[in-house]
Each structure stands twice: as structure tokens, then as C-alpha cells.
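Request: Have a read of the protein record below and say how the chain folds.
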Amino acid sequence: MTVVLRGITWEHARGYGSVVAAAEAYREVAQDVEVRWEYRSLLAFGDQPLDELVEHYDLLVIDHPHIPFAAERGLLLPLDGAGHDDELAVLASQSVGVSHTSYRHLGRQWGLATDAAAQVAAWRPDLIDAPPRDWDEVLELAGEGRVLWPAKPVDAFSSLVTIAASHGTGPMREPGRFLPREAARDALSLMRRLAALVPPGDLTANPIEVSDRLASGDRYAYSPLLFGYTNYAREGFRENRLAYADIPAGSAGVSGSLLGGAGIAVSARTRYPAEAVAHAFWLDSAAVQEGVYFDGGGQPGNAVAWESERTNALTLDFFRGTRATLEGAYLRPRHPDYPELQNEVGVLVTDALRGKLTDDELIARLDEATARHLES
């Protein structure tokens, strides 16, 4: 009898094509297991409640900030102690930055870092000789009308975190305070200067939309902070190829970029726990990540794939060019209510960039929301 595992991921070649290609290859590995993948929108990927998904799917590709909520409510199977601990140790040693750690909570492992990402910079090597190295150079290029920046709420929030952390102050480290006031003002000042120099439509744009615009025509040449997609660095994906680089250096260098990415988890409601767990570990193994998963459009979470000559040659050195940023990425608070905080205050950050809130008003509301969500 064939065991059918249902999986849910997100709607993009990076999220969907990758796991579908891997599922087809898996039939040669486990001939009595079929993995069928479905997808949801990028917005739903960040917002759709996991307690709904685990009732219908065996395998879930999820964002790591949802792990504390899912773990504390018994929605996922722990992957340690499931007969794959040797493989788990190998994957921990092959983590890109803290990607693997981001799926741990309460001393257990609830997911595997299938996809590694953080905010990085993107640029057009056919239009400029090199990407800006620091924020002065970014603002100079923006003043020439050559820069795009995704700043819809979740991305504006991510940029605020990244800029503050790259200047030495990680947000949400003190009880009841989003950021020390001076650090918040400095980060917001930089963001306001950038917002005044990029197209107004950037305040409603996400990284995919900005990447599409950056890859077309010859007007725009650079974006300083957006979640990278290896797809845009590959031949033939869009009209022009994008190269990727570390974020503009702050006082703390290129550390502090907000960690993103995606991981594979197993529903606690699955009827086939052994088969689902086995597939998750196979999918995250170095050979699969560097091979069929990458070839299907994926952005691997395994460091072996990041160090591969082949994957770098096919992506204009995407992995080498952004590795320092990933290694120093900022891990968001491990709290069940954190996603609610991010959704709430992201709107406020974009409103501030639109001139609807002063810095002091925004800082006060960020602090209030931080206390309400993270101190419970």
C-alpha cells in the first residue's frame, strides 16, 4: 500500500517548485511513499493559523516565529528522539547561522531549516560596478533615483529591526521596550531619509514585487534591504539577472539582519509520523539540498549547498555574497505571541514613514505593544 503524505508550502518556485521536484525524486528512495504538495499565498504563509493546517496536512513548510506557539500547543511532532538523532546532529553542524536553532523551543527541535534567508541587498551587475558598502553610499545612489526598497508593513518592520541591530542594538531585548529611544530615533531617521528618495509605491511593495521591478528595464540598480531569492540570480528567470550582497554595513558591520527562511515541520495529527519525519530529514540532507531541491528552484537551508561551487556558479555567487549577513542574522524573540506583535506594529512603522505618526508616537506605541505581547 502506498502512503500518501500531504504537504503545504507557499506559492513561489522557491517554496513550491523545490519541494515538488524533491517529492518526485523521493519516489526512487521510498517507493511506497508519495508526497503531494499544495501551496498558499506568501501572505497566508506568514498569517494562516497553524492549528487549522495541522488538521489537514502531514508536512508543513512554516516560518520559524510560529514555532513557540505551535510547540506549546502540541501542534507539531518533536523531531529529536524520533529515530533520527544522528542526522539531526549533522544538520545542526550544517546550519547557516542560527537557522537550525530557530526551530528549537523548550529544549526540543520542532522543525528543520529547509530554506535559509535574511534581509540582504540586491543589485544589477550590468548597471553598476559594485553595490554600495554602507548607508552613505546607499543614500547617494538613492538620490540619483536608482534605488528600490520594499517597505510594506512586514518589510518596513523587518528593516527597522535590521537597521537597529546592524548599528549595535538588537530590538526587544529589554522588558517592555522595543528599542532604547535613541537607537530607535537613529534607525527611524535613516529609514525616513531612504523613504523620501525611493518611489512612493515602495511603501506598499514586498520583496518579490521589488525584485521583479529591479530585474526589468535599466532604471533601478539596487535595493539595500529585502529578503533574497536565488531565483532572480539564475539565468532566464527574469529579463535581467540580479546579484546579491551583504547588507550595507552599520556600526556593527553586516550583522543584525532579520532572519527569515522557512522550515519543514510534521503535524502532530499525522497518521504517518514515521514516514513524514523520514521525508523531512531526507529533504534537508546535504545531497538533496544541493541537488534536486536547489534545481527545483529552492533556496537551501543546508550550509553544504551554500558552499557548493555549482550552486554559486549558477546564482552569480548568491550564497557566498550574502553568507556573512546570514551568519550574523538577528533571531526574533522566542515567544508564542511574537507573530501578533509583528503584524500589529508593522502597520505602524509604515504609517510613520507615510508621515502619519511622529517618531515619538511610534516609539511609544512600539513599547506598549512589546510589553503587551511579550511580557504576558
Notes: The longest strand covers residues 3-10. The chain has a mean pLDDT of 96. The domain at 3-117+260-322 is CATH 3.40.190.10 (D-Maltodextrin-Binding Protein; domain 2).
